[in-house]
Each structure stands twice: as C-alpha cells, then as structure tokens.
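Re: beginner question about structure tokens

> Can someone show what the tokenized structure looks like for a real chain? I only ever see the sequence side.

Sure, here's an example I had lying around. Input first:
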Amino acid sequence: MILPIYAYGHKILKKVAKPVTRGYPDLGQLILDMWQTMYNAKGVGLAAPQVGLSLRLFVVDTIQLQKDAEEEGEEGEEPTETGIKGVFINPEKLTEPGEIWTYEEGCLSIPAIRGDIDRPREIYLKYYDEHFNERRILFRGMNARVIQHEYDHLEGVLFTELIKPVKKNLIRRKLDNIRKGKIEPEYPMVFT
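And the corresponding structure tokens:
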C-alpha cells in the first residue's frame, strides 16, 4: 500500500525516533509499504518518520543510481560503489571516516528543493536487517550519503538544516509553501 509522505513542517520529522522492537506488529507489511511508497515517489531512501511513524527504520535502494550514473557516463561525478538495497532497523553510527565531500541532495518530504550538503565519504554502521540479523558494514560514496541522509531523519534532522545560510535564505519561501501545502506533489502527502 502506498502511504502518504509527511511534508516539511510536521512535528514528527523533528523528533528523535524510537527503537523498533522485535515483536513490532506487522513490521513486514510496514517494510513492504515503505518500499512501495518510496518507489512510487521515485526516491532512493525513505525513513519511517516520513510516513508518520516515530520508528528507527529506513529503507534504501541505490541500485538505480548506479545504473543511471553508468548510462550517463557523467564526468566528475562521485564514483559510486555497487548500489545497495536494504532495510535498516535501529541503526547506530559507529564512525564516519573519510574526507568531507559535497553533493546536491533532495528529500521526498521537501519536494522540488535541492541543496549542496557536506558529508563524510564513509559511514560505519551497526544495524539490524528485516530479519533482525545484526550487521556491521562500512558504506562508501553514494551509498554512505543516502544512508546518512536517512539516518538524519531518525535523529529529527532535515537536509535543509545542513544547507549553507545563503542558499537557505533563497529557499525560505519555498519551504513555507511546502509547510502550508501550497504545492502540487506527484505523490500522496500529508501537510500540517
């Protein structure tokens, strides 16, 4: 089932999410719904707070990003390791090694707004998969970036908070329009 995505301005997007318990009811269905919602909105990641649930859970699929980069053969683009598809439950950042790199990001909760964000090139993450198997993996490049973006959602941080002040001033009116629901999104959304 396609779930509505909560738009910029909703309080749930600013809360630190709560851990997911092993016996969480209908967790498998929620994960399926999140995949369907993300693909419907043409996203590469989606966190539970974005669908109105204060849970430490997100899904990521960067495989299409890898395919697009290979097809376009863009010069100067950040090289991406093999794309990943996975469920991340109760993730915990262990370290974020590597130099900082800048890349333009967007967000399904903040449609039509993009901005350059500085992030470390790598993230070493402890998390549980959809079967509650513990994983500890070092992610690099675009995979790390998407995971860092979704992880921020679980901490109540939106990418717009990381945009440089000059750009933030330029998008203030657009953010206000999203908060007020004065936009026409291409997928179901819930506004304040």
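Each token stands for a local structural state, so reading them left to right follows the chain. The mean pLDDT is 93.
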